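Retro notes
What went well: the complex prediction finally ran end to end.
Inputs used:
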Amino acid sequence: MRSLFIDTSSFVMTLAILEDGKVLASFKEEVLTDMAAKIIPTVKLLFEKVTFSIEDIDKIFVVNGPGSFTGVRVGVTAAKTMAWALKKEIIPLSSLEFLATTKVEKKNRVVAIDARRGYVYGGVYDEDLNPIRKDQYLPLTELTKYLEDGVLISRDSLEGAIKPVEDIAKIVEKHKEDISVNPHEVNPNYLKLTEAEEKKASKE
Amino acid sequence: MNDVIILGIESSCDETSVSIVKNGCEEIATVVLSQMDVHANYGGVVPEIASRMHVENITIVIEECLKKANLTMEDITAIAVTYGPGLIGSLLVGVVAASTLAYIYKKPLVPVHHIAGHIYANNLERKMEFPLLALVVSGGHTDLIYMKEDYSFKKIGGTLDDAVGEAYDKVARVASIPYPGGPLVDKISHEGKDVYSLPLPLDDDSYNFSFSGLKSAVINLVHNEEQRGNTICKEDLACSFQSRVVEILTKKTMRALKEYQVKHLIVAGGVAANSGIREKLKELCAQENIDLTFPSMKYCTDNAAMIATAGYFAYQLGRRSGYDLKAKATDPLN
């Protein structure tokens, strides 16, 4: 199975081409501006490094959030347009689950992405990436109880945000048999309403 | 000569639109998915909601348009996309989708300026003749542009603050006229009389416009009347406001036509639908023997047919972008 992996949900753009569980080519770098202008040129460059072309892939895996709203939209728009155009299977993945691929000694991977004002996009996964607590927008303090037998993983540092290729392979392997979603229905999973919607809801 | 078929994508504000236009004049199919109903709940366009809806709709709209045209991507010569100006988050969705399609189908990618699109919307109904003057009036723009030939844009004047459509929406809000205020202000202005004393904004020798002073005058008027316990007649207020806007827009436009010795005037943008502007320009242009064109209502608001049309002329001039096309919130027209 050949696949393309796309994650633009943080300040690091992660793109990878995989074949049978192995990463053949990847790009994992900090992209602070114009991620939208870099994604397709980088995908093109990656396919120049392998022996097959984008038409030859079987599946597209795209991280659809939570994370940077704009960032997520860049990856999801590219991925769903590709999947639609190429008639390929597309499988959305959680950015928190992707973070949870990090190797730790304890049972729980308590993953959190800073959402400001004491809140995080957080979730808890076991070592096989099974969710123990579903991804949610919540106060960080609500996750502390999982830390008794767990390790907090964030991607606030560049070190944490740039993932080793084995981690990409791990999450793709875990979801390789997932049922493909209609590309039109692959959308960002923000886990949070817009401020305008929140304000409106609080008034009603 | 082979037909040039352009697929245009527009997502600069709150409309997700895709269109296919042949040879820069023949519209084959257009799909516009407007979010206006959603933003109406918030009294104006909410950028983050707009961006979210563009992502949800973009591939659906592309597919619908191709179906409607009974064409496939293989039939398309090039892909044109609005790269700016507009809401950056909204623009990004169209730009990324367009770059992706261009890459997958190995098609040329043509960047189009949103205002070039509004101007070229006129070419869909009647061939544009040069030299011409374009009055671009919308929620984001109030520009006078001189065009010697295709794709030569010389901005001779523009707004120094609010765009004309913006001023309409703000006045509507102050007068408690529901969203979208602009068209409603226009509508009720015909039922009122010009009784309120409002200033003629930036009545000078330049071709620039300024609407913030007029807007403030309306706000002050409403507050003062309220404090005196008087009720404002919305129809009269709309009439007085619209009269000043129409007067200054037409006055400077007519002067520019004279100075540049131009016999063709085109009016473009969402506010080109304004009946006050239409009627006054028709009257003045008839007097001065100026050939005046307005796009149909459907081409006045944001749509991708205008982007595909402008895209055709940009394509013919060899304008291309790599897949690294950057969306720009602001960018001069050139």
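What we learned: Residues 128-294 of chain B form a domain with the Nucleotidyltransferase; domain 5 fold (CATH 3.30.420.40).
What to try next: split runs per interface for comparison.
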